[in-house]
């Protein structure tokens, strides 16, 4: 790959001062220099004129369920528990083909919103329906995003006091074997890694204490990270109090599920003490404001968490509870939720950008490699065209975060490789990818109907 020079660009590097007119020098998959003024003369370099553009680190998505691309627009006016109860058995009908189409479309959609790294939390593995984990990994390779799939799981069905029907849960020993195999097969711990696997039992109301404990031991023995849903709704808190006699964060503490290698999705219903525990233990969280709003789950205490030193990243969450949600849009949604709750100084545009980049990188344990534009980091860069309509906004970072419509994406680089150019995916045929996502939806509905399940 020839060197790349991006020049005449407004740089918002997240770490260090902004530079109104500067350059980025990329060699291979790394940033080798970021600075003010014109780029150096580098023979053979691909020169990108960034006039009228804002350069930011690529956005990092730290919570998703890509398979849900195939079940969007259903159970529209329900709480989390009602929504899950309506959808579990539809999801039980999915196969590798559904996951492949859904994941491709979901990841392509994320790339078009400036995302260069995405995690995914896949926790339903119906038997005899192909290799679902491999299917989403194949999709990520094709689209060209850095991928952190989490091997999810559920082992506590309704007969054991859990929320999901027994048909969608797996046995503990099967889960641990499959999770270990996923890590051994796919996890790449290298600096430049395009794929790292996490261990991710689904939630306190669908997983046994034994699975949580065993999963933590497995992840720590293999040096990978831990992820689960936590404190998303008050229904969950009531469930935990009733079943285990503890609130969610206390329960996690008992199970050994706090620490710098853990990040939770949502973390909405936290006490002051919970926030302090997150800060003290280095436990992260993925804020998913659109999903939280859609399900009426609540508003996370993000500005208080940041103020007290707890790490927060962003996530779009699964598409079935956040239809067609862009990651750039979640910066705005996060900012507006915090301001609606705490007032206009609760979250700045730059803080929203920071949680969407460096905060996400910390959740995934990649703050050394990702999340800011600095020499030595991986060349994951979003170049936003803020020179046309957005040029009427004096501050380009404000234009990016405050605007309802994302500024055009001039370029998206992942490890120096162009994935998006002028709002078009360059790695795959964009329209085909989108249509395959629609076909995945129709296929899932057909498969579910064949098993006698439907939802509207
Ligand atoms: Zn989720």
UniProtKB/TrEMBL annotation:
<dbReference type="InterPro" id="IPR011059">
    <property type="entry name" value="Metal-dep_hydrolase_composite"/>
</dbReference>
<feature type="domain" description="Amidohydrolase-related">
    <location>
        <begin position="55"/>
        <end position="419"/>
    </location>
</feature>
<dbReference type="Pfam" id="PF01979">
    <property type="entry name" value="Amidohydro_1"/>
</dbReference>
<dbReference type="InterPro" id="IPR006680">
    <property type="entry name" value="Amidohydro-rel"/>
</dbReference>
<dbReference type="GO" id="GO:0102127">
    <property type="term" value="F:8-oxoguanine deaminase activity"/>
</dbReference>
<dbReference type="InterPro" id="IPR050287">
    <property type="entry name" value="MTA/SAH_deaminase"/>
</dbReference>
<keyword id="KW-0378">Hydrolase</keyword>
<dbReference type="InterPro" id="IPR032466">
    <property type="entry name" value="Metal_Hydrolase"/>
</dbReference>
<protein>
    <submittedName>
        <fullName>8-oxoguanine deaminase</fullName>
        <ecNumber>3.5.4.32</ecNumber>
    </submittedName>
</protein>
């Amino acid at each position: 790959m020839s060197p790349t020079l991006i020049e005449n660009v407004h740089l918002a590097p997240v770490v260090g001062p902004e530079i109104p007119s500067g350059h980025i020098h990329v060699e291979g998959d790394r940033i080798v220099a970021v600075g003010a003024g014109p780029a150096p003369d580098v023979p053979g370099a691909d020169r990108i004129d960034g006039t009228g553009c804002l350069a930011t680190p690529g956005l990092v998505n730290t919570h998703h369920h890509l398979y849900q691309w195939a079940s969007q627009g259903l159970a529209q006016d329900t709480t989390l528990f009602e929504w899950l109860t309506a959808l579990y058995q539809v999801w039980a009908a999915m196969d590798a083909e559904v996951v492949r189409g859904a994941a491709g479309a979901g990841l392509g959609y994320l790339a078009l919103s400036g995302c260069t790294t995405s995690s995914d939390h896949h926790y339903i593995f119906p038997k005899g329906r192909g290799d679902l984990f491999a299917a989403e990994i194949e999709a990520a390779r094709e689209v060209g995003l850095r991928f952190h799939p989490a091997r999810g799981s559920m082992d506590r069905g309704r007969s054991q006091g859990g929320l999901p029907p027994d048909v969608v849960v797996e046995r503990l020993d099967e889960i641990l074997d499959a999770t270990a195999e996923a890590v051994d097969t796919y996890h790449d711990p290298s600096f430049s890694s395009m794929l790292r696997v996490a261990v991710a039992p689904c939630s306190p109301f669908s997983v046994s204490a034994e699975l949580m404990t065993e999963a933590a031991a497995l992840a720590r023995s293999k040096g990978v990270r831990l992820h689960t849903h936590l404190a998303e709704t008050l229904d969950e808190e009531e469930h935990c109090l009733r079943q285990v006699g503890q609130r969610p964060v206390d329960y996690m503490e008992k199970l050994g599920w706090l620490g710098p290698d853990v990040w939770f999705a949502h973390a909405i219903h936290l006490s002051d003490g919970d926030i302090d525990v997150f800060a003290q233990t280095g436990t992260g969280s993925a804020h998913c404001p659109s999903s939280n709003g859609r399900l009426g789950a609540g508003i996370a205490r993000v500005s208080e968490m940041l103020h007290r030193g707890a790490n927060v990243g962003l996530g779009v969450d699964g598409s079935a509870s956040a239809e067609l949600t862009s990651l750039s849009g979640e910066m705005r949604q996060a900012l507006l939720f915090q301001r609606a709750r705490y007032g206009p100084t609760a979250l700045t545009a730059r803080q929203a950008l920071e949680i969407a980049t460096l905060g996400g990188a910390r959740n995934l344990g990649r703050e050394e490699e990702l999340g800011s534009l600095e020499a030595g980091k991986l060349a994951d860069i979003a170049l936003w065209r803020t020179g046309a309509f957005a040029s009427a906004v004096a501050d380009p970072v404000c234009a990016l975060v405050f605007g309802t419509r994302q500024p055009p994406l001039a370029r998206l680089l992942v490890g120096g490789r162009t994935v998006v150019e002028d709002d078009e995916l360059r790695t795959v045929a964009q329209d085909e990818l989108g249509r395959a996502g629609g076909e995945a939806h129709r296929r899932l509905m057909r498969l579910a109907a064949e098993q006698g399940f439907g939802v509207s």
